[in-house]
Every structure is written in C-alpha cells, then in structure tokens.
C-alpha cells in the first residue's frame, strides 16, 4: 500500500483501539500499573524498581540532582533512599519514560532507529525543561509537567514503531499526512497508557497552539519547553514561536538569569533521565 493508505490504515486501527505494543512496553506497563496500585507499599515499590536496572539507576541519579538535593545533602547511593527522596509521583514519571523509550525497541531499520534516538533526546530535554519552567515560570505542578513532557511525543514513537512495516512511511511529508495520523494515534495511545485527562488534553492541543501571556497552563509549559529544547523532534513541525508582542511580554516573567538557571537545572535532570542507546 502507498503512504496515504498506510497512514489511513494505522489511524483507522488507532480509532478502533486496535493497537499493538512491543512486548517490552507491555512489561513496563505492568510495572506502571503495580506502582499505581494504592496498596503498593514502599517495600513493593523498591523491589519493582530493582527489577528494572535502568529504572533503578535513573531513580538514584534523579534523587541526586539539584531539584531534589538543593540543600547539598548527602549523595543518595541506594534505591530505598532515592524513592523516599523523589516520591511516588516522580517514580511513576520515570516509569513512563521507560514505556515511551521501549516503543523503539523493535525497530530494525537503522535510519528509523536514529530517528527514535533523536525523538527520545528531544522528549527527555522537553520533559526536563517543562519541570523547570513549571517550578519557576508557570507554577503548574512540576511532577505533572515532567510527566507530560515524557509522554507528549508518544504518538510519534508509536508511528516509528510501526514504520518498519511500511517502508517510506516517515519520509519527507510535504502534505503533513504523518501529523494528521499522529494526532489520531496520540489520543488512543494516551488513553491506553491511562494518561490523566488534563495532561492528555494539554498534549493534543499543542499542535498549532500559541503561548499564552502570561504563561500559566500545562500547555504553556510544554510550549516553552519545546521552544527552548536544544534537540528538535525528527518528526512533524515544531510548535510556532510566540507572536512578536509576546516576546517582550515574556521578558517580564523570564529574564536571562532565570532562563540560564532553568537551562542548567534542566540539563542536569536530562542527564539523570537519559540512558544508553536502544538495545
């Protein structure tokens, strides 16, 4: 089938809820469901984290970043102390990052794998920046902002995971069929991942949205993070920059010193979240 037919096929599957996730995604989803169980005690959470070496390493690394160790306390060296310091909500965000990353685990084509790695780098930078912008500019919940940043490109990851089946699916796309398909796919993947409605709504509204002044919503937080990320998404088009009148208005809430602090803090968080290339 040609590309347009392939996009239509994938979008129709998504609209029916007929989606196939890689086995590795399903495994991490089981971990996510276990951690979300209100009866999951600390000992159970620690055991589950230790069962995923990448998650264990990133949990300890995140606990030692400035965002969680601003008082220059002792370095965390074990999962138990790390979980206690960062809390369950942040731990769930790290699990979500594993879910998103695993969408690329079954990609065979080297070019598509390179796109998956770039999309992950973009995602991790946006998530880290969203958390920092939330804390210093928009004042939405930073944990929610980090989580939203992690899952905001999940539709793109799903398309990449299917692209081996349809050669040329994600080649140059002047008519933006990929974007239209990704929008449909994103809604369904977000639903299957049980992403809370306020987060899902902010994500699906991103395309074509303008930054509000003053920036104060989760969508604004994601737009700011996308505007300042050092790694562009390899899929689709970037969000539009704020209109000219907003640039001067943004100066009132984001001076150069604040922006440098945000970027420095986000860079540290990115390092704690990033991992080795896909196996």
TrEMBL record:
Residues 21-209 form the HDOD domain. This is HDOD domain-containing protein.
């Amino acid at each position: 089938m040609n590309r347009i037919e392939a996009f239509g096929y994938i979008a129709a599957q998504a609209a029916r809820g007929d989606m196939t996730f890689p086995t590795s995604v399903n495994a991490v989803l089981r971990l996510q469901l276990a951690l979300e169980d209100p009866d999951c005690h600390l000992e159970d959470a620690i055991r589950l984290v230790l069962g995923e070496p990448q998650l264990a390493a990133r949990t300890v690394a995140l606990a030692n970043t400035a965002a969680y160790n601003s008082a220059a306390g002792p370095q965390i060296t074990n999962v138990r102390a790390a979980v206690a310091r960062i809390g369950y909500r942040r731990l769930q965000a790290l699990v979500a990052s594993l879910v998103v990353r695993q969408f690329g685990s079954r990609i065979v084509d080297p070019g598509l794998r390179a796109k998956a790695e770039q999309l992950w780098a973009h995602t991790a930078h946006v998530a880290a920046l969203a958390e920092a912008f939330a804390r210093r500019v928009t004042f939405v919940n930073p944990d929610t902002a980090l989580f939203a940043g992690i899952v905001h490109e999940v539709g793109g990851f799903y398309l990449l995971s299917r692209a081996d089946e349809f050669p040329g699916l994600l080649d140059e796309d002047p008519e933006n069929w990929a974007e239209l398909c990704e929008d449909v796919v994103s809604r369904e993947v977000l639903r299957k991942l049980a992403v809370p409605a306020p987060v899902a709504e902010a994500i699906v509204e991103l395309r074509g949205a303008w930054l509000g002044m003053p920036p104060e919503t989760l969508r604004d937080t994601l737009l700011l993070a996308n505007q300042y990320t050092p790694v562009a998404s390899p899929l689709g088009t970037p969000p539009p920059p704020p209109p000219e009148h907003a640039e001067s208005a943004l100066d009132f809430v984001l001076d150069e010193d604040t922006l440098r602090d945000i970027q420095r803090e986000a860079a540290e968080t990115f390092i704690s979240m990033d991992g080795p290339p896909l196996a």
